[in-house]
Each structure stands twice: as structure tokens, then as C-alpha cells.
Amino acid sequence: MIQKKRTGRRAALSLMICTAMLLGGLPASAVTLEQVKQRDQLYCGISTETPGFSKPDAEGNWHGLNVDICRAVAAAVLGDKNKVKFVPLTDTDHVTALLTGKVDLLSMNFAWSMSHDTLIGLDFCGVSYYDGWGFMVPVALNVQSALEFDRVQVCIEPAGRSAGGIDAFFSRYNLEYKVVTPGKGQSAADLVKSGKCNVVSGDVSRLAALKLEFADPDDYVILPELISRRPLGPVVRQGDDGWFNLVRWVLFGLVIAEDKEITSTNIGDTAALEDPEIMRILGRENGTGKGLGIDDDWLYRMIEQVGNYGEIFDRNLGRNSALQLNRNINALWNRGGLHYGPPLN
């Protein structure tokens, strides 16, 4: 099964590379920003049914961190966060959709890796969420760290162990384990409920969603260790530097606003502050939009309508969401995390 899974990944990557050669080999258009302005709508590719990142509610309205990244770009460029057409995509059609111009931007759980960055004709604009493989255990197991594991039965979510580095982790720390593979029609949650495994491993964002499938999510805890790196973030076509710069600085702007404690609720009350960077966020100093091809109020609109990065995280993944994920490495650089925005000057 493992070999089949690896073969499937190679085939998928080969398909992406072939698509890039056929569709992305020509110089990418350098007028995406102008196309979005003329259309007066952003076409944003998102994942389907990904809790916390992109999922529609009962009325068909999309919610999630990736969704809010799209809305922030729309607010910055078009002045209205709602001027977005969300295009649900899968792991097999997302690259083609971007390279053919079906979407202007991908904001989905697409991992930044060397092959994705160099072989397909894509540019990753930055990291909106630092993900990685980790472990979830029942509270009753009474462990605080994966280093305490002893002869555990590990279920993989989703099935397929190579991406998570499971074997390397257990071998490195000389821990005994057994991988239990879900059968046809089974999920890792089914195996945990039936007592066939007492540890679940997978992307931490996926484990947080998996907790919600249990009768009492508080009976399970995600351990602090990450055993792989899986940075996620918005993606554009290579060759359109102006559009790449704009999306990248939208992402930076969300982080910088949180760093400066500018939120959607207080942004109208900060006119008296003398911090030059805050004045640039407010659009009170000329020049922040010039190099991006938009006006200087772009940051103000974006934060007022969508919020800063911390607000986006909290309502979709963190303390104000069902997933209840801790910030951890997704905190700001000066609060123990990795998120960092270059100076606004």
C-alpha cells in the first residue's frame, strides 16, 4: 500500500510538470492586476470542505483562513472584500486552473516545497499557515509528549505514512510502534473509536478537524511535537511579478497590522498615533500603494474589512473557532512564532 501511495504521488507530480510545460511554458501574463480591476472581481481557487481553511456554511457562504486571504486581496485591490468568486478546486485540477487563468490566485492547503516551487511554473507568495505532521492522543493515555510513546499503535490520517516522516521519527528516538492502516471505508477516527489504535498522526490542522468527529473532542489532545515541515500559503503564476508582489504584501500587511496591534475594531481610533508604520497602515503617508499599482488606502481597507492575521487565525482556527488550535509557531516573531513582516517603508 505504501509503494502504491508513493507511486500515486509521483504520478500526480509528473502530471503537474507536464501541465506546466504545456500551459505554463510561455511567459505568464504581466497584467493579472489589471484584469482583476477590469473584471471588478477576484477569481480565487480554494480547497473544498477543509475545516478552518475553506468550507461553506448551510447558506453556501465560504469561511476559513484561506477564504479570508482571498477577501483581503479583494479588499486591497477592489475596495470590497466581497468582490471574490470562490472556485473550489481539488489536488488534481488546482495547478491547471491557475496556469490557464481560470483563477487569479490559489489560496488552499497546497504545500510549499522545492518541486512545487521550481518545476511547475508557480510562485509561493509567503506562508499563511505553518503546518506539519504531529500526533493526537486520548487524554486517558496520560502522555504530554510524543517522546513518551511506548509500544503505541499509530493510525495515519489520511492514510499514507511517507509524507509525515513517521518511520524516521520513531527510529530516531528508538521508540517501539506499530502502524495500523484503515481498511476500505474506514477512517482513522473509526479505528480510534474501536480501540485499534491509541495514537493518530497527520497534519496538525487535519488532526484538529478530526477531533470534532468524536463525541467529546476534549477527550483528545494534540501533542506539541511537529515531525515535518509543511508551510502553506497563497500561490500565483510565475512571470507576473507585479501580481506576486501585491499578494505577498497583502500577506505581510496582515502580519504587520497584528504586530502593531491594529485591528478591525480599533483601526478608526488610531489617527493620533505617531508611529510612522501605523501611519502607513492608515494610508496617512503616501507611497505604500505606488509600487503595487493600487492606492495608499489598501491596508486600511483590508484590515477594516477582514482584520489582521491574528483576528483571521482566531476566528477560523484558534480560540474563537471550533478547532481551538494554539498559535504555537503560527504566532508572531516576537511572541515565539515564525510570522514576520518586512518594514513598511
Walk me through this protein's architecture.
- The protein has 345 residues and is α/β, with parallel strands linked by helices.
- It has three domains: 2-130 and 231-245, Periplasmic binding protein-like II (D-Maltodextrin-Binding Protein, domain 2, 3-Layer(aba) Sandwich); 133-228, D-Maltodextrin-Binding Protein, domain 2, CATH 3.40.190.10; 249-335, no CATH class.
- The protein is built from twelve helices and 14 strands.
- The strands form five sheets. The chain has a five-stranded mixed sheet with strand order 10-9-11-8-12.
- The radius of gyration is 21 Å and the shape is globular.
- The termini are far apart.
Please name the CATH topology of the largest domain: D-Maltodextrin-Binding Protein, domain 2
- The CATH architecture category of the largest domain equals 3-Layer(aba) Sandwich
How far the N terminus sits from the C terminus, by CA atoms, comes to: 53 Å
Please trace the helix and strand order, writing H or E for each element: HHEEEHEHEHEEEEHEHEHEEEHHHH
Number of domains: 3
Largest sheet: 5 strands, mixed
Which range does the strand content fall in?
15-25%
